[in-house]
Amino acid sequence: MLSKDIQEKFIAIVGKDNFECSNMERAAYSFDSSPLQPVLPAAVVAPRNTAEVSEIVKLCNKHLIPIVSRGSGTNLAGGTRPTEDAIVLIFRNMNSVVELDEENLTITVQPGVITSDIHTIVEAKGLFYPPDPSSMKMSMIGGNIVENAGGLRGLKYGVTGDYVMGLEVVLPNGEIIKTGGKLAKDVAGYNLTQLMVGSEGTLGVVTEAILKLIPKPETKKTMIALFPDLNSAAQTVSDIIANKIIPVTLEFLDKATLKVVEDYAKVGLPTDCEALLLIEQDGPASIVERDINKIAEICKAANAMDIKIAANDQEADKLATARRSALSALARLAPTTLLEDATVPRSEIANMVRAINEVAAKYNVQICTFGHAGDGNLHPTCPTDIRNKEEYHRAESAFAELFEVAVKLGGTITGEHGVGIMKQSFLHLKVGHAGIEAMKAIKLALDPNNIMNPGKIFDVTKTEVSV
């Protein structure tokens, strides 16, 4: 619990209305979208500008108070679950678009701006911000940046980090730095912008971001292809890429996921197949038409049962919305939902899908699979109950084996959700013990008092030993 003196110092910085330590308010920020048990933070603080963030951080650094920066809490790996002695920093007052620069094709935003609002604002000007995480209608751009969020359009357009040109960051000592800028080229020193992207709030607090925009695509077309077996669908993903076609979206849903999503979204998704691919292409009309026709041919050659092209944008949007609702739909099946994002090279998608099914059978758990198959990012999801210790242990064991499989196939333990708390014990599989020690050296150089989101990604108090 914070002392009365410390509480008064926080209030002096942000005002009484922006400091809260009641049980109700702390409870609201005690958990995120992971299945981890809630932990009440010491207080919740809502700064109004960068200067206040700096003063808050200086106060915390002086008194060794941990800081957990939080957006909307959609994190799936426990990255925004606080510790009981921490303050949670929220950005409800820092939610403005600072500038839309059409000459330089950038938008400058504060961390509390909702991601889908950025889409709406720039598309009204004929511009395009491609990153589109499934949580985009509630997730904040600051959270997207520090998690390096992906999305359905990642295959063609990349992830959040590919569009972050510059940042304003408050370092753990309270100093304010600006990285990058509205520049096509800049190699002045280390790339601190990209160091902060994906850092999960462990290196500083992002208070402003310059994002790259591109011209809005002229047109788009969406199709679905139905397959009688998982292998055909998974192989088709590799075949499309091998034919040098890069769709905007190339999503995979297995039969179990399809049934749950259709029951939830009711958009007319077919459920009489073993797998479905949702495919979208955008660009000039002639290119889109050519690519969609070629993709249809590839699907037919791969034993597709049926191919349907959306009649208009409204129908296409319904299909994309249904796919984005997969987690919400699956979460209705059981009290606890374990959703992972093991990622492999595109050429290994078929092998990874087979492994998921084999592991599910081995541990006698239900695993529904969907995800961004075009960029190798699958989301095996297990509906379970954390109160059933025996079942939950089987589910955890299944995912532990899947992480090992993914890395052996040349992949990684997380493509977009982050390490947080839940994947710490698997990080060495991807980066090795020496890699973890290198990350710790960076962390402790910037944050020697370990106040920024401590205990996330790795434990700085433990020494990694190579074996």
What does this 3D model show about the protein?
This protein has 467 residues and is α+β, with helices and mostly antiparallel strands. It folds into 5 domains: 4-90, Uridine Diphospho-n-acetylenolpyruvylglucosamine Reductase, domain 2 (2-Layer Sandwich); 97-215, Uridine Diphospho-n-acetylenolpyruvylglucosamine Reductase, domain 3; 219-323, Alpha-Beta Plaits (2-Layer Sandwich); 329-408, Alpha-Beta Plaits; 423-467. 36% of the residues lie in helices and 19% in strands. It has helices at 4-14, 23-28, 50-63, 115-123, 141-147, 154-157, 192-196, 230-242, 255-265, 285-301, 313-324, 326-330, 349-362, 389-408, 427-446; strands at 19-20, 43-45, 67-70, 87-90, 97-101, 106-109, 127-128, 164-170, 176-180, 205-212, 214-215, 219-227, 249-254, 275-283, 306-309, 336-339, 368-372, 377-384. Strands 15-12-14-13-17-18-16 form a 7-stranded antiparallel β-sheet, sandwiched between helices. Strands 5-6-10-8-9 form a 5-stranded antiparallel β-sheet. The chain has a 4-stranded mixed β-sheet with strand order 1-2-4-3. β5 and β6 form a beta hairpin. The radius of gyration is 22 Å and the shape is globular. 49% of the residues are buried. The mean pLDDT is 95.
